[in-house]
Amino acid sequence: MKPTIPFRFLMIIMSCAFGLGLGSCVKERPSVPKDLAQEALIPLPQSVHATGVSFAIDKDTKITYQQPDLAIFATDLSEYLGKSTGFKFSTKEANSPTVNTIHFALVDSIAQAEGYVLNITPEAITLIAKDHAGIFYGMQTLHQLLPAQFEAGLMTKDTVYVASGRILDFPSYSYRGAMLDVVRHFFTVEDVKRYIDLLASYKINKLHLHLSDDQGWRIEIKSWPKLTEHGGSTEVGGGVGGFYTQEDYKNIVAYAQKHFITIVPEIDMPGHTNAALSSYPELNCDGKAPKLYTGTRVGFSTLCTEKEITYTFIDDVVREILAMTPGPYFHIGGDESHATPLDKYIPFINRVQAIVKKYDKKVIGWDEIAHADLDSTVVVQFWAQEENAVRGIKKGAKVLMSPAKRAYLDMKYDSLTKTGLTWAAYIEVDQGYTWSLEEYAEGVHQEDIIGVEAPLWSETVSTIDEVEFLAFPRLMGIAEIGWTAAAKRSWDHYKLRLAKHQVRLDAKKVHYYKSPKVPWNN
Ligand code: TNX
């Protein structure tokens, strides 16, 4: 039986009165929100000033933009608002906002890249930024100020109100990333796009794809076709694996670009290379190809660092991938090369760095690469050993923060979590949030750090639902750590905002973990 409205109302009152569940008394978002400071925004903006009234979006609201290259944002917003209201919002170029408009403009007065100012008055909403990314991020904030039904495109057929005030916002760090291991288990182009949609809405701007490992090779290389034909044919547990054709990869890159996300491709070497070694015997020092591997051990494989063919191979792979990669980075892996002696590892990493630089790209590598020669263009991705991060800094490199104990999304939440690993820690939602980049490791200071990245390794993860379960809500906390100044963040405030996001996560059909640490509304 479908409960009638009065019955549902009574139930809510009763569950409040009898204290059934912590969150059950939390008030619904008022239909005419007036206090901008009470809105649950994630990541929290750098500054919010409320003015106590609201802007009404109705059938006469117009969307304008100050120059032609902003037309796309106006069209996107018109479609987004149109889906849920049924109204047709006109869009046109205009110098300044008039009454009942939402207006976009680029200005020189905003200093920070990706920053924006969202000014909401009863007359107009103006979104100004220094660059397109800033307009995009202001738009993500605006989405979070609208009712959650909009996330699902559900009809409201009504005037919609946005609380008035001024949000001045910019990221603390320029690198706010997530990593997906598409090797241990393969994820389709559609899966990756779904992940991109979710990342972008929390202002994450990098997606690092771990494209090769012992268990598979996931990116088509035309000059070495067996890498995917043979090396892409399996995954952990013996499934059929899979790979991205070059067209698939370009498709992912283009989709990411539209969402202001830079793809960072990784080819892990000299270790984590069994799939490549199995595809081409000449890459092995003994000239013999090992069998494909579907287990989860690490550290047993290595490219033959003394053979010239190895460097021809790497040059071909790097060249083909970079020809399709507009972003500035190439990730060379470099982790857990236990089968490569250090005196061979160092010259190997040095040569590989030179190959990447030849194609005018910046090198990123896991923290072990700090043993090699580095310069100020190199980024050391700190995951395990603080002394490697410090070693890298002393050589002039920058650091990307991914401490496994806090930022690894493949770690279980607690002992009851079904998927995931435990080698670094259990990471409950509060554990994943209550740390800061600049205070995590001694000798790693704010000026050394380019940002944060949350890796999700997929040994135990084989569906996008499982990816979402491990990533959400922890990734929202990581997004805030990268965006919002540490001094402005607090778990007590964050957990309330997170609870209010439950309706949005539900609307987006995200398979998130209902952590007992969060006072969810239902
Ligand atoms: C360590 S983190 C690895 C990966 C595993 C991961 C599992 C890193 C650079 N290497 O090969 O998948 O642990 O959590």
Helix/strand-derived category reads alpha/beta
Total number of helices: 17
**Biggest pleated sheet:** 8 strands, parallel, barrel
Estimate nothing, just give the exact number of structural domains.
Answer: 2
Average the pLDDT over all residues and give the rounded result.
Answer: 94
Q: What does the overall shape look like? A: elongated
- Tell me roughly what share of residues is in helical segments: 25-40%
CATH architecture of the largest domain: Alpha-Beta Barrel
- Which molecules other than protein and nucleic acid are bound? ligand TNX
What integer value in Å does the Rg equal? 24 Å
Instruction: Tell me what portion of residues adopts beta-strand conformation.
Output: 15-25%
Number of strands: 17
CATH class of the largest domain: Alpha Beta
CATH names the topology of the largest domain as TIM Barrel
Q: Based on the structure, what is the oligomeric state of the protein chains?
A: single chain
- Give the full name of the CATH homologous superfamily of the largest domain: Glycosidases
**Uncertain regions: pLDDT < 50 for 5+ in a row?**
1-28
Give the termini separation: 20 Å
Write the layout of secondary structure elements.
Elements: H1 5-17, E1 47-57, E2 62-65, H2 71-85, E3 91-93, E4 101-106, E5 116-120, E6 124-129, H3 132-145, H4 149-152, E7 160-169, E8 175-181, H5 189-201, E9 206-210, E10 212-213, E11 216-217, H6 226-229, H7 246-258, E12 262-269, H8 274-279, H9 308-322, E13 329-333, H10 342-358, E14 362-366, E15 379-382, H11 386-394, E16 398-401, H12 404-407, H13 429-433, E17 449-456, H14 464-471, H15 474-483, H16 491-500, H17 502-507
Parallel strand pairs: 2-3, 2-4, 4-6, 8-9, 8-17, 9-12, 12-13, 13-14, 14-15, 15-16, 16-17
Antiparallel strand pairs: 1-7, 5-6, 5-7, 10-11
Helix pairs in contact: 5-7, 9-10
The structure holds ligand TNX.
Ligand TNX is lined by residues 298, 335-336, 366, 383, 408, 410, 421, 457, 459.
